[in-house]
Amino acid sequence: MTIGIHFAARSDVGMLREGNEDSAYAGSRLLAVADGMGGHVGGEIASAAAIETLKPLDRDFPAHELVGALEQAVHRANETLHSIVEGDPSLQGMGCTLTAMLWNGPQVALVHIGDSRAYLLRNGELFQITHDHTLVQSLVDEGRITLDEAASHPQRSLLLRALDGRGEVDPDIALREAQLGDRYLLCSDGLSTVVSAETIHHALSTAAEPDQAVRQLIDLANRGGGPDNITCVVADVVELEQLHGPPSAPITAGAAHNASLGRGEADMPPGAMAAETPAQRAAALREQQHPAPVTVADIPAVGRQPAEETLPQEALPQEAVGRRRRRWPWLVAAAGAVVVLAAGGGYVAYNTIQGQYYVAADGGQVVIYQGMNQDLLGIKLYHLKERPSPALKVADLAPSARDSVNHTIDGLGSLSKARTTVHTLRGQVCRVVVADNSEGVVTIWKGKGQKSSLGCDETVVEKPSPPVQASSLPKATKDTVHKGIIVADVTQARAKVQELRDAADTCRRKPGKSGCPPVKANTTHP
Q1: Pairing mode, strands 357-362 and 409-412
Q2: Cis status, amide bond into 390, omega within 30 of 0
Q3: Res. 215 pLDDT band, cuts 50 70 90
């Protein structure tokens, strides 16, 4: 008896999106789903690149090499994304989720990062065998919000981990053992956020063939509004000898599919079902009698067993373990990421946060933050990225620039744009100036001569003592002082005043020389 998989895969643009950023692959050894992010173009490129990197795995691997081969391929995919962004910086911020399975008979390696999902239907029970790497899911795990609150939370798509080429990728990976009669589903969140677990269970339980299950699930997601791209891969664990006809050809779907079909159409592999409307399929499903309430639970992985050991059958329970708080091996890592995030540091692998920067004030200085300028349930979604050098004081800025910084300058899509903003702010500083006042006394000013250009108020910072009269200076120096000498700060201004004081003393000792004013003639009559 030879155990293998009978599979189907489709990807649909949905009802609201202009393009498809999802990608999928299904073959006799490899199943994979990737959900792109980072804008329409970036998302398509990221998911397609990830799938293309994994496709060579669709061949025979010894059971003990499944985990290593899949793990290495994920790291290669991450490096590929890094290289793509290096070659085209406009794609910075792109990335994708990835959920994939690599098969050898009943043994399967599962890798997961992001919020796409893998489900297992076994003996009439539905199990979710991946754990979402989202901030909202971590809050559910900690008991801070309920599942119902998570379903409608405005930040439910915020990812803690993703494949984006920014650093070392940290996927969940495990070795599992499949059984004859198992049905697996890999899907993007375009399905799982629209179609309930109970409905997914019903569709998987009642569809005779994987392709029928895939079509029903996509139709149901579109019937629910189809707000996102929808991608599904379904595989049945079967005896290959019992299958009729030639082996199924590999399927590439979504953005990774070279010949994408028109908007709103799922990719159509050979042998697809006859067309029905989404409304008809949804209505038919609703009319059928629903099974008992479904429990979506987790099944522990077999773990990374040495090749010579036998995988224990009891490691995979035959019954759902009931609705309970999940104790996932990765929970510590996810919770740790949230704790670090709350401290204002750490890595948040998700497009909207990781790819955003803003300029604001901290401790009276202009600084650059990475992330979103907001808190979520007490957790900061930002951290201090950089303190520009030399330091730029907020108080030194022109009024309009100072107000902008105090209210934050956000929407900066890269660190280079944030640095450019800081550079622009340096040109909007109310300068410290050494110049004479209306009485001809050398004075330290701020903003003098910048009223019309930047709106700076001309304020006296300091009147040096003992005073220095501009008229006592050499002519060229006096003219320079009258125009104003710009310096970096008050300390340099004081040093400049001292230089002027020394020059005035020299002129008193050597009047009429080197441009110094001559001694005034005595005009007093006896």
Answers
A1: antiparallel
A2: yes
A3: very high
- Residue 422 included in any domain: yes
| In-domain check, residue 333 | no
Q: What's 472's DSSP letter?
A: G
Residue 62 lies in a domain: yes
Q: Are residues 362 and 288 in the same domain?
A: no
CA distance linking residue 358 with residue 415, whole number of Å: 9
Burial group, residue 84, by CB count within 10 angstroms (0-12, 13-18, 19+): middle
Q: Which domain holds residue 406?
A: 356-426
Q: In the structure, what pLDDT confidence band is assigned to residue 327 with cuts at 50, 70 and 90?
A: very low
Within a domain: 340 = no
Lowest mean pLDDT among 4-13, 98-107, 283-292: 283-292
pLDDT attached to residue 376: 60
Cis omega (within 30 of 0) for bond into 466: yes
E strand or H helix at 404, and its extent? helix 399-406
Q: Spell out a b/e string for 110-129, using b for 16 or more CB atoms within 10 Å of the CB, else e.
A: bbbbbbbbbbbbbeebbbbb
Report the alpha-carbon distance of residue 23 to residue 34 in Å, rounded: 5
Please check whether residues 418 and 473 belong to one and the same domain. Answer: no
CATH number reported for the structural domain that contains residue 7 in this entry = 3.60.40.10
Regarding whether 461 and 407 lie in a shared domain, the answer is no
Both 150 and 219 in a single domain? yes
What total of structural domains would you count in the chain?
Answer: 3
Task: Report the candidate in 419, 371, 4, 6 with the shortest Cα–Cα distance to residue 160.
Answer: 371
Average the pLDDT over 414-441 and give the result: 92
Q: Are 407 and 392 in a shared domain? A: yes
Sign of the alpha-carbon dihedral angle for 135, 140, 144, 147: positive
* pTM, entire model: 0.57
The answer to whether residues 48 and 73 belong to one domain is yes
Written as six digits, the tokens of 262 are: 């028109």
Alpha helices (H) along 147-277: 147-151, 189-192, 197-206, 210-223
Sequence-ordered list of residues with C-beta below 8 angstroms from that of 89, at least 6 positions apart, any chain: 414, 416
